[in-house]
Design goal:
Helix content is about 40%, strand content about 20%. By secondary structure, the protein is an alpha+beta fold. It has a five-stranded antiparallel sheet, with helices on one face. Helix 5 runs antiparallel to helix 7.
Length: about 230
């Protein structure tokens, strides 16, 4: 069919117009139309091997350039306990300065009215809840490096805890402070102190209620070291 249409369109011009500009235009137009029809039937012609080779080389160069332009990411956003390959590691503090370090942490143990009244009246079967929890918090702070695997074993200068009954929400508010003079902070020691104290309150009272809730374990303040002072905004 295409050849038939070519024959109908392509009529040899008279000899007098064989080399005229109009004849050349007619032939070019006819060829262009036939090329369009061929592409509609058989699709666009494939690129030449030279053009394909050049395109492949260009794509390879662009890919190589894009790869080289990518900057290596910092190892896990600067997390000091994670190495460049994602493995856990203990931080080397040998080059750090020796300064006084202080950290204050807090938590809350919500008892409910029934248990709160028993604790306030010191009528729990296991004895003095607040006194035992306070001692447990001090012991917990001293055992932090044994509980948290990548913490340094540091010398604590002082550990202090306050356990205050709060009748408004029938809770025990716990605040703990850890102090040391050394090369690393004592935030984990303070957090461990209040957490162990809270767990001890739970243990002393669990026979009277299973609804006891330990909540709001958090760092309140730290000072000393390269990062300086920090306090929680309330």
């Amino acid at each position: 069919m295409i050849l038939r249409r070519f024959a109908s369109k392509f009529k040899p011009p008279p000899r007098s117009r064989l080399f005229s500009s109009d004849s050349s235009l007619d032939i070019s137009k006819t060829i262009a139309e036939l090329n369009q029809e061929m592409e509609s039937v058989f699709g666009a012609p494939p690129a030449s091997s030279l053009a394909g080779s050049l395109d492949s080389q260009t794509m390879a160069q662009e890919s190589h350039r894009a790869t080289n332009d990518v900057k290596p990411k910092e190892s896990f956003s600067g997390l000091t306990h994670i190495g460049s390959k994602g493995e856990a590691q203990m931080v080397d503090i040998s080059s750090k300065d020796i300064t006084k370090r202080v950290a204050i942490a807090s938590c809350k143990v919500i008892l409910g009215q029934k248990v709160f009244d028993l604790v306030s009246a010191n009528q729990m079967a296991k004895g003095d809840v607040l006194g035992v929890a306070k001692i447990a918090g001090v012991c917990g702070a001293k055992q932090t490096s044994n509980l948290i695997p990548l913490c340094h074993n540091i010398n604590l200068s002082h550990v202090h805890l306050d356990l205050t009954p709060n009748p408004r929400d029938h809770s025990i508010e716990i605040k703990g402070q850890a102090t040391s003079t050394g090369k690393t902070g004592v935030e984990m020691e303070a957090l461990t102190a209040v957490t162990v104290a809270g767990l001890t309150v739970y243990d002393m009272c669990k026979a009277a209620s299973k609804d006891i809730l330990i909540t709001d374990v958090r760092l309140e303040h730290k000072s000393g070291g390269k990062s300086g002072d920090w306090s929680r905004n309330i």
